[in-house]
Amino acid sequence: MNKAQRYRDAGHWPDQTLHFWLDENASRCPDRVAVKDAPNREAITGEAPIALTWSQLKKASLAFAAYMKSRGVQAGDRVLIQMPNVVDLVVVYYALSRLGAIISPIPVQYGHHEVDWVHSELKNVHVIVVGSMAGKPLAATSLSDRCAVTVMGKDWVIDPNVETDATVDDSSVTASNILTICWTSGTTGTPKGVPRDHNMWMAIGVSNVKVCDYRDGDILLNPFPLVNMAAVGGFLFPAVVCGATLVLHHPIDVPVYLQQLQQERCTFTIAPPALLNQLAAKPDMWNAFDFSALRNIGSGAAPLSPWMIDVFENQFGKPILNFYGSNEGISLYSIPSTTPDTEMRASCFYRPAADSCIVAEVADPESGELLTEVGAVGELLMGGPTVFNGYYNHDNQGVFSKEGLFRTGDLVEITGDDGRYLKIVGRCKEMINRGGFKLSPVELDLLLEKIDGVKEAAAFSIPDDTLGERVGAAIVLEDPAKPIDLEAISAYFESQGVAKFKTPEGVMIIEALPRNPVGKVQRFMLNEIYQAQNA
């Protein structure tokens, strides 16, 4: 029996599409609110906030699907999306799902540099954007000279009260069709596309329903961009499975976020560790609101603080759930029922049971030999119904182990009395993890070395209590008498249209880059030198 049939037999792959569940909810709970804008939408896109019931969401997505079809979009076409968390984006997901088109969402922070690269790889036939973000056009708008562009709010306006007789034949669209190609940075210095079909997403969604204790009619506040695993797998799919209300927030405006959490009577949300630390350190801020409807809070993307978990659970009465995931389909968690000890829950993740379809193994990074002893450290390997089949337009050499498991590139320690937990201790490769954005230092090296006066350069990570890591730059000057400062580097990155989160926030001038005997830059030494200089 092949693995796909095994996943179907186990119930992990129900062979149901995203829009199938939309139709179910439009019949089962038509008047329940399905999706709602943040109250500050006007400050984000210049348009008033809207909300759609499940019935209205179906009609709006059908009408938009018919419109996109009239513009030539058909099954299998790749459509690049650059939009903030607004109702229109959710309509786009459901509409393109019904057409069988492939949705490729990118962060609104992406500049021309990143957008041009993604377009060159994706060869998308269409782009969907909002008219502006805080009064400025998004970078993907510039692709209008290379492909068709639809501007939401201008070319197409979402009407909550639309009555449409539009029909779209979706009979050929199956759950095995690729629904999305999300993007992640690779060690080669270029983003990598991660294709995922409906079944893979549904496996993640159903898993999160169970782990987060989602219930029929829940109200979920999503403050993560709908471009990757955390939001699509953690909110969009669980919401449609439960017929829940999805309350959108464009990350992250703390006063607005807290206001929404209270006024919408949200039952679940997820928040970055830094915000949870801030709230735990200032109980008066938390106690100024009524969060009585909230059952659980999720977090992740950076290490959690055990003291923060203690405050939330013992003083606020709100359990904290710790998640570790990726676009490729890594899905580990640590929750009170699996990990009652808060010290362990802050840094360790519960290992899937041996009889589960989800597999988490640890292997020696060099030999590939599987490790089983408590205390052993190796590369995390993942497999199962949530995991993708390989990167888009990529040879996928070395991406999977000889057992067929995804090589995550993360170093983990087998821990706990019976080895039932995995602790993330580092990365096999030298990615910089800035607040959940994993940045390739190779890409940044190439940008730095294009700056006038730079002989050679290397990016490295700077530890940071809030974001986990920030970007540092080590510069070797062509002429020591002509120094280059952080302002000059920032100006250059901005001139190249590079996303701000990739811009170095620390710089040091050195005589030569430290290298190993075969000439590879030793980035860990750059980190040590920088910290010594700034102690």
TrEMBL record:
It comes from the Bacteria. The keyword Signal does not apply. SUPFAM superfamilies: Acetyl-CoA synthetase-like. GO terms for molecular function: medium-chain fatty acid-CoA ligase activity. Keywords: Ligase. PROSITE patterns: AMP_BINDING. Signal peptide: none annotated. Pfam families: AMP-binding, AMP-binding_C. Gene3D superfamilies: 3.30.300.30, N-terminal domain of ligase-like (3.40.50.12780). GO terms for biological process: fatty acid metabolic process. Belongs to the ATP-dependent AMP-binding enzyme family. This is Long chain fatty acid CoA ligase.
